[in-house]
Amino acid sequence: MIDALAASLGLGPSDPAFWMPLVFMAILVLLIAASIVFDGFDIGVGLLLQFAPSELRPQMLSMLSAWRDANEFWPLLGLGLFCAAFPFAWGPVLGKLYGPLACMALGMMLRSVSFEFRLRASTEHKPRWVLGFWVGSLLTAVGQGAVLGRIVAGYQDDPGYMGFAVFVGLCAVAAYALLGACWLVMRVEGDLQRRAINWARHTVRWTAVGMVAIAVTLGLANSGVFSKWSDVDHLGLSATVWVVMLLCFVGMEVVLARLAAKVEQSLSWMPFALCVLLYVLMLAGLAYSFFPYMVLDEMTLWDGAGSVASLRMALAGVIVGVPVVLIFNVLAYRTVFGKAKG
User: Fold this and answer.
1) The pTM is what?
2) Cα(267)–Cα(269) distance, rounded to whole angstroms?
3) CA torsion sign, 249 to 252 to 255 to 258?
4) Cβ pair 99, 146 in contact under 8 A
5) pLDDT digits over 218-270, tens only?
6) CATH architecture of 14-332
7) For residues 31 and 85, is the Cβ–Cβ distance under 8 A?
8) What residues does each domain of the chain span?
9) Torsion of CA 33, 39, 43, 48, to 10 degrees
10) Distance between CA atoms of 79 and 280, rounded to whole angstroms?
11) Which residue from 2, 21, 26, 4 is spatially nearest to 287, judged by alpha carbons?
């Protein structure tokens, strides 16, 4: 397959002009996955603040303090890598996403400002910054979901597709709230865990609706994607992915129900693990659907990639800089999965 793809581009498999864009795209997918998981539970907890009693909000925010800087690193690194490795894709991709990206950027800035100002604000002003953090989380989730909706719909501007992007944005709110709730279920006990279980059980169904809508729309909007997944040679893979995703949803429902009934408390980590698996599978399915295009049927990875010289320079920066940053993040995330103390 690799040989045939390289030959179709007039390149050899060992040619840097062929394999370097693949390497950068693989790194980019991994960074997106890290952003969804680590920045995702941060956004999810922020979204749940308005549903929590005022006396529990300080605990929820204080639990995020150890990872705030690390969490925001992932989307920024992903965007920087995309701009460095695929300069010719800026216009065709980012140029059609101004609205959702502006919404996402505004949300990220509001989240950061509100979180820091809350720590320094007087007691009577703290609720304002907590509200700002919630609004920032909402804007970030809606913006990211709308970006996905626009990409899945092939950037079409018909009212129906624009409405679909808004719908996916709202489903992204549910998906991030589910991730944040499952993280809280894993991390805390008592009243907050009970509330988090309830939040997770309410959001899991809307997350499923959003994922089904994305899959159906992607297949209907592009015949090439539909044929790729429905082809006899790939039908086994398609069926396996959908069965595993269905089992993830069912498993979450079952475990959350048992936790709500105060049975099998040792499984409090499982909803978060299943949620992460679910989102990784969704991302992998989207990557498989789009490959080898950055814009379906219009621009491939190699069309959007920079010159070999610029890719070599960017790769050198990745090789030198990313391991250092990863060490920092690994140290920061050492306790992200354990029970919160005191």
Assistant:
1) 0.90
2) 5
3) negative
4) yes
5) 888 787 888 887 777 777 888 888 899 999 999 999 999 999 887 667 788 99
6) Up-down Bundle (1.20)
7) no
8) 14-332
9) 90
10) 19
11) 26
